[in-house]
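Practice problem: predict the structure.
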Amino acid sequence: MWRSIGCLLLLLATTSAAPAASSRFTCDTPRGKRVELGASGKGSDIKWIEDDLETVRPAVVIDGETFSVTWGTSVAAEGKGAKLTTYVFAAAHRTAASIFATRVDESTAEIFRFYFGSKSLYKLTSRLDGTSPDAKDAPFVATYLTTCREQ
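Answer:
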């Protein structure tokens, strides 16, 4: 009996003494395309446009079920400063293969998914139909993929 109690105490001590360390990743320039309305502005006139993402350098932090993604221009553009946004998802969905979370506001829905095996970050963005007649506010979908390295 004492032996089984000792084994149980040893098991509890070793599992609680090994805290989960957070993993940090820096990512390469993403590749991606977006759907855009053509010149006619009709739904049947759509095309895939290659996005210029040369100044975007995403970063990922994973700490248990917490998933943080930093996205934006990390290099200041001419006349503008760098614009980085960090999204922190406190209850991301984690599986053995990946961790993912969604972000939704009034006009945009985004899915961020990080794959552990390939160390790649996938971002899918969908902007909802705006009330503005401006063509740049038309609904669109964009998909981006980048490879990351552990820091």
